[in-house]
Amino acid sequence: MVRTDAVAGAVVVITGGARGMGELYARRAVAGGARAIALWDVDAERAEALATDLSRSGADVRAYRVDVSRREDIRDHYQRTAADLGAPDIIVNNAGIVRGAPFWEHDPERDIEATLRVNTLAAMWLTREALPAMMADHSRPKRILNIASAAGTLANPRMSVYAASKWAMIGWSESVRLELAATGHRHIAVTTFCPSFVSTGMFEGARGPLLTPILTPERATRAAWEGMRRGTPMVLRPWTVKLAMALRGLLPTRLWDAVAGPVFRVYASMDHFTGHARVD
């Protein structure tokens, strides 16, 4: 019999778990009664400090220094985490970086390859490691939460590579969800989260399009976490993300450009971007 509560008693792995939204996911896991939580982050000192703080609740919270842009690092630390805590029941693919610049200003390795490795390939690599054990264990619900972006639903100037990484994340995440359902693994739910700008500092200087507020990290993580718990396939925040997707699908490209640019100011949202260009 599969339990109905996905979080209580679960083993949770969170990439980019030392700060920002990753930290908030970890705190939600503790509050939800998770048995063990693995914080994966390149910032070992910050991860250790957070693990120490969260462990006071009684949960088994451990920090692992992991460079998710390296497949061998993910493989090795997945095995270590599983040996220390048990096979994960919940995976939160949260780590991400952004480079806000015209495409021709992107460095091929430092910007293009690094963004795709951290934002897209890392989630694929970790999920590929975790899925066999998840598929074999029907004793409790399993969850995969993939943090994508509204940038993966609409093209936008000055974020071509970031948008590409999130488009790929959405297509892959949705495809895996369908594959699991079609093969009888309905105890594993895949949730894709597509927020607009979130005020973590990662998009410092960016401005939301018309009627689109900058989300607080607390509001964003609450929506993603509750969607993950329920097994909601896709969570989009705020409501204007869904509206923009619908309009883009209905309008001819040139007409959409005329609306998205001067009217909704979508194409100007990154004009004043500064950011911090680091793993979140």
TrEMBL record:
Domain Ketoreductase per the UniProt entry, residue ranges: 10-191
Annotated Pfam families: adh_short
What InterPro entries has UniProt attached to this entry?
KR_dom, NAD(P)-bd_dom_sf, Sc_DH/Rdtase_CS, SDR_fam
**This protein's name:** SDR family NAD(P)-dependent oxidoreductase
**Family per record:** Belongs to the short-chain dehydrogenases/reductases (SDR) family.
Keywords, A to Z? Answer: Oxidoreductase
* Cross-referenced PROSITE patterns: ADH_SHORT
Question: Which Gene3D superfamilies has this protein been placed in?
Answer: NAD(P)-binding Rossmann-like Domain
